[in-house]
């Protein structure tokens, strides 16, 4: 698809802001949905993939009948929102041995597994939005001892929200990244994740990945307005001598009002 395109620094394969964000993608849904909506944290349009089964609700690029993306840039960057449900995505690459390798990442796996043509790795996402960065050339070299040539296919499964997916020739900072590819956020809750190849991946003997740390997000303390502020100062009552106090509390007999007779009502 991009074989005859000029691939300099960035190649965008998905952007939720646009008239046709799924122009090069095929959509598959079963007992789920793929729709575009406004995210409450970003105040921007994003694509939501939700389904009962992770394997039956997904989007894949390129769309048929195109066989390959043919993207030669080795870094894959995705802006994803953690929906606190099962989620996975796959990247199919071609190496210099003319072999297709499939890299699969999911948040319900606990161990890294390496086979002849696929790698399965756990993925840990923090709450809210995440920026996931993958060095595909490093994965290919360490796992199989071959060189990365190009990316053939990208497949994103439920359950997730996605804003942008793009490739780059290297990792850029925020100042060097185009504004359309950045994560513009109002809540300030996000984290950049760099996926690294475990040391034992080349041999397939990788230990169990530690459990995901639990992060608690404390809501902000409401500020008390000045008009409704509660005063903590207590005014002292004026001192009244005992004689004057009795004079105030016990009126004269002449000034006392006559008792009121009670009447019955029916």
Q: What does this protein structure show overall?
A:
- With 266 residues, this protein is mainly β.
- The protein is 6% helix and 35% strand.
- The chain has two helices and 14 strands.
- Strands 1, 3, 4, 6, 11, 13 and 14 form a seven-stranded mixed beta sheet that branches. It has a seven-stranded mixed beta sheet with strand order 2-5-12-7-8-10-9.
- The model is unreliable at 186-190, 205-219, 224-237, 244-251, 253-257 and 262-266 (pLDDT under 50).
Portion of residues within helices: under 10%
Count, helices: 2
From the spread of the alpha carbons, the general shape counts as globular
Low-confidence stretches: 186-190, 205-219, 224-237, 244-251, 253-257, 262-266
Overall pLDDT level: 79
Order of helices and strands: EEEEEEEEEEEHEEEH
Strand content: 25-35%
Class computed from helices, strands and strand pairing:
mainly beta
The termini sit apart by 93 Å
Calculate Rg over CA atoms.
32 Å
Number of strands: 14
Taking the sheet with the most strands, its summary is:
7 strands, mixed
């Amino acid at each position: 698809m991009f074989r005859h395109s000029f691939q300099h620094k960035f190649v965008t394969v998905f952007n939720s802001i646009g008239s046709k964000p799924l122009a090069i993608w095929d959509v598959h849904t079963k007992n789920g949905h793929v729709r575009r909506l406004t995210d409450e944290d970003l105040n921007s349009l994003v694509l939501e993939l939700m389904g009962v089964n992770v394997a039956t609700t997904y989007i894949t690029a390129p769309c048929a009948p195109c066989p390959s993306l043919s993207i030669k840039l080795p870094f894959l960057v995705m802006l994803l929102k953690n929906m606190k449900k099962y989620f996975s995505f796959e990247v199919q690459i071609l190496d210099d041995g003319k072999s297709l390798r499939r890299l699969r990442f999911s948040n319900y796996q606990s161990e890294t597994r390496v086979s002849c043509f696929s790698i399965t790795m756990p993925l840990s996402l923090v709450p809210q939005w995440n920026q996931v960065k993958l060095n595909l050339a490093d994965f290919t070299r360490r796992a199989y001892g071959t060189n990365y040539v190009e990316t053939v296919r990208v497949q994103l499964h439920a359950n997730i929200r996605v804003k942008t997916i793009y490739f780059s020739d290297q990792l850029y900072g925020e100042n060097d990244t185009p504004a359309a590819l950045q994560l513009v956020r109002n809540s300030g809750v996000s984290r950049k994740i760099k996926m690294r190849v475990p040391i034992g991946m080349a041999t397939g003997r990788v230990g169990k990945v530690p459990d995901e740390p639990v992060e608690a997000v404390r809501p902000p303390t409401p500020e008390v307005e000045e008009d409704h502020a509660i005063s903590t100062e207590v005014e002292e009552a004026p001192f009244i001598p005992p004689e004057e106090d009795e004079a105030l509390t016990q009126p004269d007999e002449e000034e006392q009002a006559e008792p009121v007779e009670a009447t019955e009502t029916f």
